[in-house]
Amino acid sequence: MPRLRATAIIPLLLLAASAGCSAPGANDDDAKSGSGPIKIALVDAQSGQLSSLGAWELKGARLAVDEWNAAGGVNGRQIQLDVFDDQGDPTTGTTLARKIDSEGHIAMIGTAESAVTIAMAPILKQAEIPNITSGQSPGLVAAGSEFLFLNGPTSTTYDETLAKYIVDKQGLKSIAMITNNGSYGKGEHDAFLKALSSRNVVPVADQVVTTDQKDFSAVLTGIRQKNPQVIFVGAEEVESGLIVKQARDLGITVPFAGAAPQGTPVFLDTAGAKNAEKTIVSSPYLSNDVSDASKKFAAAYKAKYNEDAELHGAKAYDGTQILLTALKSSNVATGKALADAIRGTKYQGLLGDFAYDQTGVGIFATSIGTIQNGKLVAVTG
Amino acid sequence: MQVFLQTIIGGVSLGAVYALVALGFSLVYRTMGLVNFAHGNVVTVGAYLASTFYLTSKLPFALAMVIAIAVTGAIGLVIERVLRPLENRDFDLMLIGTIGFGIVLDALVIAIWGATGRAVPSPVQTEPIDLLGLRIRTYDLVVLAIAAAATVLLVLFLSRTKRGAAMQAVAMDHEAATAVGIHVGRSNAIAFMIGAGLAALAGGLVGPLLYVSPALGGALGIKGFAAAILGGFGSIPGAIVGGLAIGVLDSFTAGHFQGYSELVTFIVFTVIIMVRPTGVFGERTVNRA
Prior knowledge:
Organism (chain A): Actinoplanes regularis
InterPro entries (chain A): Leu-bd, Leu_Ile_Val-bd, Peripla_BP_I
Family (chain A): Belongs to the leucine-binding protein family.
Largest sheet of chain B: 2 strands, antiparallel
Helix content of chain A: 40-55%
Strand content of chain B: under 5%
Shape of chain A: globular
Largest interface: A-B, 39 and 40 residues
Signal peptide (chain A): 1-23
Structural class of chain B: mainly alpha
Structural class of chain A: alpha/beta
Order of helices and strands of chain B: HHHHEEHHHHHHH
Number of helices of chain A: 15
Number of domains of chain A: 2
CATH topology of the largest domain in chain A: Rossmann fold
Number of strands of chain A: 14
Distance between the termini of chain B: 43 Å
Shape of chain B: globular
CATH architecture of the largest domain in chain A: 3-Layer(aba) Sandwich
Oligomer: heterodimer
Protein name (chain A): Amino acid/amide ABC transporter substrate-binding protein, HAAT family
Order of helices and strands of chain A: HHEHEHEHEHEHEHEHEHEHHEHHHEEEE
């Protein structure tokens, strides 16, 4: 991590030095003109509670950039990926949005936190900097920026698929919900509740917790008395893990269900593999073995970072690939032209086939998997 | 009724950890009159050290804890030694010095262990005890027992040993204590060392309950500080009562006010402090304030 920081700072220093020599405002055009490296910003939490998301994103994006650079870059120009730490904080995010604009970055990868991305969206829209986020809150679509793109499905897709499996296929109607009151949890709450009510199912419990809550005894004991068949959790990795662990300690034996976070290693470690058994996960990237492309990606990821790839790294890899493809097809365009190029990019990614619509969403399907023997396994049929 | 009792059980186990954090705050405060703002970060360091020795070096949990407490205690000594020249000169600078140390420790933790954090499996693998439908985790009982033992040892040290009595004397009147030949600096150093050791104990114990990350100490530090204030800042029994009270209060507000639980917890806390500014066991006249 400190090495990353140092490498992120050096270009900034160089930039500050070069900016000092040129006329005010000139640096903005320098970076966009036809020579020198193409500057792309990666904004993500590199510290704080959400830093695991930021670390995965960085690894996925870096892998894509390195592959392109090794193959000669875009139009013979190398791609320079500068890392910025938003600490998972929307206020820091808005400061960084202005910073990447003034430093002449032509596009942004990140963030992994919907709330931060939503806060940054108006500034990036004004600055005409296309942004490919890993957030999945429907609020991102509601932000209504033509410069904002998602590298995965929204919560609506995740939870519709999940509800379809649980209610329609498994016939489970007695469902309890626990979600947190953060941006992600709120999105999950609304999307899953909507999917349930369209099936005329009313959850037996609908509990909301705070994002940094540590003890869930009261909420879970309440749910235990309702005796649900399955418990839906809408919270980030660590909190979901704690909820599942404490639920098992309280003698709750029914399976849990949720979206992307429940398929991650952090969730598994926090909950304990035994406790997470049978968790139902809705995810666009269930495992590294789903396709040849994902096997190749996973092998490259393992070779570079010596750890197993997972959803967030894959999403960031896809998003970065789409951006770089669009840069190439548009002959390194910037601003609105680049945004249009991204919208026009059809890309076969790790998550599926991307084709962007006007809302900035490019993919509309997830698959269902369950955790068996500590591994996420696709449900067939 | 079952929800009520289970909520108390859940609150007490985290409350015991808050109590240990509060003890560290209070011990330094009663001896030096100083709020150690680095305390929460010391908790994080302790949690990381304990989890590293336990998971990476594969030492038994108890031994890992002892080493973590010793190393963290040494960090406490360093903090005190650096701040010592400011003692009795500029108090504000000392406060800011502890904040600075907090930032340094935070950065060190991220530099050494990275920002991602790690999960620590529980060292006690037995099934929770089932008591008339109430579930009690065995590890919670271990935490409570260790917290109680630590408190008893601390009280015995302060009341029965010469060094402890000297610390009490410094707490009451450091000039008079100096006059009778007590080394005030050494007394402060011991307070800082024990305080840091208690932080490591809290951090190490809470690791298997939660998730060890750089943000761990921040959350525990604030709750622990609130616990110390609630019980009466500087008071040893106050820290215990305050810690358990904050834990249980937190647990109940989580059940009743859902997403607004944190807000309600601190509103209740503020009201109690307004009614009783010195806290439950407040005895400010005895301590330096």
